[in-house]
Specification:
This protein is α+β, with helices and mostly antiparallel strands. 19% of the residues lie in helices and 35% in strands. The strands form two sheets. It has a six-stranded antiparallel beta sheet.
């Protein structure tokens, strides 16, 4: 399982890359592996304000449907529209072309997020 050191994570299996006042968000390698082949991604709308933990979207796979939650609070400023046509990118490249959205941070601290070691420990127990 791939757990990049330069990202932060949630217990719900989202990843966050915070750069400046923005956070790029996606689902982890662990999550995409557990889901199986992704066939549909419900993306958030641009310009929507989110609190941490709010419903961000959904991922539908051949096995199940899973909700995606906002790992940070802020306003959605970019959405990876390519996922609408190519949802399989979540499986092929979850930390690259499979990103879901970017959020302009309301609180840049990233409080409550897990580092790679803590996330690795979490997934080892699942």
């Amino acid at each position: 399982m791939n757990v990049p050191e330069d990202l932060s994570y949630t217990a719900e299996h989202e990843w966050v890359r915070i750069e400046g006042g923005r956070a790029r968000v996606g689902i982890t390698d662990f999550a995409q592996s557990a889901l199986g082949d992704v066939v549909f991604v419900e993306l958030p709308e641009a310009d929507v304000e989110l609190a941490r933990g709010d419903h961000l979207g959904e991922v539908e796979s051949t096995k199940s449907v899973s909700e995606i939650y906002a790992p940070v609070a802020g306003r959605v400023v970019a959405v990876n529209a390519a996922l609408a046509e190519h949802p399989e990118r979540l499986n092929a490249d979850p930390y690259g072309e499979g990103w879901i959205c970017e959020i302009e941070l309301g609180d840049p601290s990233g409080e409550g997020l897990l580092d790679a070691t803590a996330y690795g420990d979490l997934t080892a127990s699942e």
